[in-house]
């Protein structure tokens, strides 16, 4: 487990920033500054530390830079240091919500962002993302089937042959980017909702050789609240499972 995460969490101001993003994701620097009794430069320094430890992510929207809570490292802290010491029902106590709407003059941004660092090449990650025998080991036992062409449909089947999810390949740029529409079919409350969108961004880490950053953005779900709620928790599990599989050869248990 990266010690930077624990160092980041040790500071009360940084914990407050995480709480603020938990309460309302996609905040601007100016918004966050109004809640802390410190200079704008001080808040920026704390945000930089949180971003370097991968606890938050940022996205440029128009002229603003928005800050988002990244639940994946927190989920890993939970699995490593909490879950094995507590009863399974406590899993609900540490789920961090990030399905919020932000109305701005320049643009409306509704998205959930998850990011994880994996000790593997972008090509390895792309293979794990597009090969049915690999996805079945970390994507809730779902095998993905597609022709892997832009505009082509894809389907994810469970072990019983039932459709778990389906959609369309919107952008295909191996091994760095995959954009797909997403319709969750495995739950009655989601299969009637319109499709949302998943964007996978796969890029080599700039500073650590052999490590790749995988970012998954879920958006266009303003008319699909149940899907958004399900993926808020589910995507962090999928990413953690992919990391475990690629780094150890074993599925996440």
TrEMBL record:
Keywords, sorted A to Z: DNA-binding
Residue ranges of domain HTH arsR-type in the record: 1-89
InterPro entries for the chain: ArsR-like_HTH, ASHA1/2-like_C, HTH_ArsR_DNA-bd_dom, START-like_dom_sf, WH-like_DNA-bd_sf, WH_DNA-bd_sf
Similarity section: Belongs to the AHA1 family.
PANTHER family linked to this entry: TRANSCRIPTIONAL REGULATORY PROTEIN
Protein name: Metalloregulator ArsR/SmtB family transcription factor
Source organism per UniProt: Fictibacillus norfolkensis
Lineage, highest ranks first: Bacteria, Bacillati, Bacillota, Bacilli, Bacillales
């Amino acid at each position: 487990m990266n010690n930077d995460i624990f160092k980041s969490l040790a500071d009360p101001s940084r914990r407050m920033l995480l709480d603020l993003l938990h309460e309302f994701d996609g905040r601007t620097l100016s918004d966050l500054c109004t809640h802390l009794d410190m200079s704008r430069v001080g808040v920026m320094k704390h945000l930089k530390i949180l971003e370097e430890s991968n606890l938050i992510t940022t996205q440029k929207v128009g002229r603003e830079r928005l800050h988002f809570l990244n639940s994946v490292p927190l989920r890993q802290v939970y699995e490593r240091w909490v879950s094995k010491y507590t009863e399974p029902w406590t899993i609900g106590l540490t789920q961090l919500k990030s399905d919020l709407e932000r109305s701005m003059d320049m643009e409306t941004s509704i998205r959930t962002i998850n990011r994880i660092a994996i000790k593997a090449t972008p090509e390895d990650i792309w293979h794990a993302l597009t090969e049915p025998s690999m996805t079945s080991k970390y994507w809730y036992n779902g095998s993905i089937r597609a022709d892997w062409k832009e505009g082509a449909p894809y389907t994810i089947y469970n072990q019983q042959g039932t459709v778990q999810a389906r959609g369309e390949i919107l952008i295909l740029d191996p091994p760095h980017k995959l954009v797909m529409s997403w319709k969750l079919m495995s739950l009655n409350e989601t299969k009637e909702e319109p499709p949302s969108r998943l964007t996978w961004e796969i890029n080599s880490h700039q500073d650590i050789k052999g490590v790749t950053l995988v970012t998954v953005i879920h958006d266009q779900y303003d008319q699909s609240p149940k899907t958004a709620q399900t993926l808020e928790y589910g995507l962090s599990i999928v990413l953690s499972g992919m990391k475990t599989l690629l780094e150890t050869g074993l599925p996440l248990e």
